[in-house]
Amino acid sequence: MIGLSPLYTDAVAAKRKFFQGSTIKKYSYGSGCKKSRPSTFCTVFGSAFSPALSGRTYLVACTSNGLICVWDSVGASTEPIIRVQAATADEVLYDVQFIQSNGETLLVVSGDPGILLYKWSAFLNAMDNLSNGNIMLEPIAQFNPHPSPSDGETIEINCTSYSAVDNALYGVAGDSFGCYQWDLESEKLVGTFGGAGKNRSNGDYLHDVMAIPNNNHLVLTAGEDGAITFWDGKERKIIETMNIQNTMNKNKQLVTWQTQNKGQWSNGSNLWVSSMDRKGDWLAAVGGSESGNNMSLRSGPNTAGFMATWHLPTRTFNSGCVTRESYNAIAYNQNLDSFVSGGNDGRLTFWDSATGECTGRSGCTSSMIYTLCCNAAPSMMVAGGTGGSLDCFIDRVKASNFTT
């Protein structure tokens, strides 16, 4: 995942201990960290634009072979300025995002190593002192989920989201614990929810998490049970669950006022939610169905996916579209006032944010899209996935390509 969270600028008054180095957990790099697979054999799973600094914005992405790559978003070179081997070449990184706390900009990277927290200033210093190349940077903190009850191995963190209200970092995983909540000041695990037990709702592999800023500790999780669950992040209790299946009628058709967008899944299909993003009070989500072959470029005769929108304050279904392809990522593009989705057909699909109508498509270099991120100024959008590259779009037109 694969989920896209904005930089929240709400400052946290408390000083965090790991800035002082008192309880920093050092990451032990394996021997494989000095070698990485060629970029054509890796997949880009996460991407984010950095906050603008002195008019410069950087693009950051993470890959399936443990790399964090950084580009000048408006530079002439398609090669990364630096590559940071954040994990071994056999460990996958799934998500990157920027957060700001206590006046410090942090880069949050998650995947097989758990959650790695870096000072963004360390990356800037490295780029100032090195024209290009592969480097090592130690994270200032690392957060690990519980070992799996079945085999004792640590499960990966698929996506993270930060709540400035609670000074908490949330991470969703593919284990029975579901969503983890860490306190950033103490660096301690506060609790888990959404997995097996009394606070179970999604109860299945979780793909995305979203902390809604300034909204009474509201946290959303989504995953392979086809549900979006609203949580009180402070109490870690369920507020409400929106099941995608409940937006369909008895004929397995997605309920929508746009009759031309109706489609259906075969009986017995299990739906999953892969990604969420929002525009103000409007939430958009995409995913797929087990009846569609998620590993093929084109699904078979059965419908494979969906895009749907809800009104967050009332938690009511607004509109939806059943699609032939399944989707892995969605992002809101402010400059186009559109939601943009990408999935297993190697194309971007543009959706009008007000009506939910499909307004166009653009082809990508990657045959399967796993990550999307948008930047307002300068206006650009990036899509990445298989093949180890990312396409940069200006409006809806592909302008350049970045390679890892």
Keywords:
disordered N terminus, 4-stranded antiparallel beta sheet, 5-stranded mixed beta sheet, 2% helix, 404 residues, mainly beta, globular, 46% strand
What can you tell me about this protein's structure?
- By secondary structure, the chain is mainly β.
- 2% of the residues lie in helices and 46% in strands.
- It has one helix and 29 strands.
- It has one helix at residues 120-129; strands spanning 44-49, 58-63, 67-72, 82-85, 93-101, 104-111, 114-119, 133-135, 141-143, 157-163, 168-173, 178-183, 188-194, 206-211, 218-223, 227-232, 237-243, 271-279, 282-289, 305-311, 316-323, 327-333, 338-343, 347-352, 358-363, 369-375, 380-385, 389-394, 397-403.
- The chain has a five-stranded mixed sheet, with no helix packed on it. A four-stranded antiparallel sheet has the order 5-6-7-9.
- Strand 12 (178-183) and strand 13 (188-194) form a beta hairpin.
- Mean pLDDT is 80; it is low at 1-38, 255-268 and 292-302.
| Main sheet makeup | 5 strands, mixed
Give helix % range.
Answer: under 10%
Distance between the amino and carboxyl termini: 18 Å
Q: How many distinct helices?
A: 1
In what order do the strands lie side by side in the largest sheet? 1-2-3-4-8
What share of residues are in beta strands?
over 45%
The H-and-E topology, N to C, reads as EEEEEEEHEEEEEEEEEEEEEEEEEEEEEE
Secondary-structure-derived class:
mainly beta
Overall pLDDT score? 80
Broad shape:
globular
Number of strands: 29
Tell me which oligomeric state these chains represent.
single chain
**Sequence stretches where pLDDT stays below 50 over 5 or more residues:** 1-38, 255-268, 292-302
Which radius of gyration do the C-alpha atoms yield?
A: 20 Å
